[in-house]
User: Which sequence fits this backbone?
């Protein structure tokens, strides 16, 4: 595992429109890779660990390769194929991650200039300052010995929750005061969803693990641009919810992420026919244990 590559993925990819399945796949590959960005997990392993379908994983990897984030190399073991060798674009990830960190630094400086932080602000490790208690969490750049995590230290409004990009970090300031609002950079507005999408989201089966509402909304809008009617997608959600309920897959990682369901593969158009109830199928001529129930000593045939 390369923590450096993984950190660069989180800093660079989400800020450059790598989201949803592609983002978590990049993070999983980085988790497997060495410091040069080389790894070789199988597609089956990635599907199992992320709860994604094989077609979704293969499509996402192909799109990541075409966008220049990684390169695939086929391998053979004897006379058969084995898992691909993946080369993550470590140089690009590092350069973009550094650029994002520079943006964070510039944002901190702008906040100081606008009165958010005094120029000599140095919060104590044992007692937070008055500014920290009232306006949120703003550790100083000079506080290098702090034990705070990078997620807490990142004020970049583009970097959002791992599971739902529409939800910002809990440590981000929620109320900065009326006078500060006038001079502060505008925070990202709360995502507005259509009534039809909200109805479909409420009907969509719950799953274990992440299920980004914002990513699902992005793919929903893309399908609308393709000419798909909202009622058709809602009908697909209802069929899928019934299928998940009958198969007992609700609240598990086997439920598709909504972004995948509304994605280019258009899983909402599938029939999602529920399996037959137990005992409803055709019975075989003889049960497995039927030999003990037969009387082979009697016959009506005259020999």
Assistant:
């Amino acid at each position: 595992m390369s923590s450096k590559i993984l950190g660069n993925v989180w800093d660079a990819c989400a800020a450059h429109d790598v989201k949803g399945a592609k983002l978590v796949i990049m993070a999983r590959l980085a988790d497997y890779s060495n410091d040069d960005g080389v790894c070789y997990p199988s597609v089956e392993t990635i599907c199992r660990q992320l709860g994604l379908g094989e077609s979704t994983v293969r499509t996402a990897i192909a799109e990541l390769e075409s966008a220049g984030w990684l390169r695939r190399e086929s391998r053979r073991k004897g006379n058969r194929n084995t898992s691909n060798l993946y080369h993550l674009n470590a140089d690009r990830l590092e350069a973009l991650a550094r650029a994002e960190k520079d943006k964070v630094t510039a944002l901190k400086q702008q906040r100081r200039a606008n009165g958010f932080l005094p120029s000599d602000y140095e919060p104590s490790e044992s007692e937070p300052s008055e500014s920290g208690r009232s306006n949120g969490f703003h550790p100083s750049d000079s506080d290098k010995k702090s034990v705070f995590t990078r997620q807490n230290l990142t004020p970049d409004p583009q970097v959002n929750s791992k599971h739902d990009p529409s939800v910002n970090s809990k440590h981000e300031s929620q109320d900065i005061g009326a006078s500060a609002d006038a001079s502060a950079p505008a925070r990202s507005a709360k995502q507005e969803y259509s009534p039809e999408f909200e109805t479909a989201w409420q009907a969509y089966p719950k799953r274990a693990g992440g299920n980004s509402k914002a990513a699902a909304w992005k793919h929903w809008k893309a399908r609308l641009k393709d000419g798909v009617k909202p009622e058709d997608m809602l009908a697909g959600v209802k069929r899928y919810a019934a299928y998940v309920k009958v198969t007992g897959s609700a609240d598990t990682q086997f439920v598709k992420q909504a972004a995948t369901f509304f994605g280019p593969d258009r899983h909402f158009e599938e029939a999602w026919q529920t399996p037959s109830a137990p005992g409803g199928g055709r019975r075989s001529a003889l049960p497995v244990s039927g030999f003990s129930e037969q009387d082979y000593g009697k016959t009506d045939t005259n020999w």
User: Anything to note?
Assistant: The chain is about 40% helix and 5% strand. The two ends are 78 Å apart (CA to CA). Residues 126-148, 156-188, 280-294 have pLDDT under 50 and may be disordered.
